[in-house]
Amino acid sequence: MKAIGLNRYLPIEHPESLFDFEAPAPTPGPRDLLVEVKAISVNPVDFKVRSPKPQLEAQPKILGWDAAGVVRAVGADVTLFAPGDEVYYAGSITRPGTNAELHAVDERIVASKPASLDFAAAAALPLTALTAWESLFDRLQISSTGKNAGQSVLLLGGVGGVGSMAIQLAKRVAGLRVIATASRPESAARAKELGADEVVDHSRSLVEERKRLALSEVDYIICFNAIEQHFAALVDWIRPEGKICGVAGTSAEFPLGTLMAKSATFVWELMFTRPMFETPSMIEQHRALSEVRSLVDRGVLKTTLGEHYGRINAQNLRRAHAALEAGHVLGKIVLEGFDK
Fold it and tell me: pTM here?
């Protein structure tokens, strides 16, 4: 099968940072689906995993997580899907990725593709939708049936891939008052278009922005940017007994103890946790993606597809990685179909 991989972790400008090669087709395990990949999208995790480091891979490592495709075979214990089903999913960071014609994935983190979307538009959804869904409804324990309607949430970094989904879910599903941050006019316009009630500029002091706009403390915060850079502002914005969720990983220290006076909760969200550890709640990703599919097909949620970069090959993937590394990408970059 055709695949794109790496042996060395190189700057994306290097022609061997990602390369095309022929790989053996994977053999599905008992609970696996063997999916013919029709389209993929590219996420910051792709370039973060690929970023330069001295490590070498004896066999080409295949990256990529978001995918939409068609089930071609199933493992002996599969009960949720059958060959011919159209599916979408975000994969597991501990297994070979989706930058390949055929991909093996556990059925518990897969859902049927939205019928109203083509493969490219569907591939733009899974990782960001799952991260936003888990942040809101699992980590912060906000009701997905509207029981917290009217409460407020600050989405710091609100128009990236995950933020774009979080605005929609928070507003259209949970019924929250949504305050999103953006630093450019086009980003602010995008946040408003997706449903944000207020937009504040995170390139300025968020503490001063809250004072200038006379905004009250919020019930919830999700931080999609570097947590240590904004932590003092999060402490200022959160109400007593409120909840904060961090999404962007960090190795830096930040003063968690400053939340004590407000008895505020801090939690992490990592979309890969459930498949990485095969937690008892792993099936919740199948259920969440199934809910997202229903919301998309009913017109409640929109895909976050931004740009279509053409066929799935090393040249186009290098271009996608470079664009994401440069920042300021609105929506998701997708690629579709393999070269014959």
Answer: 0.95
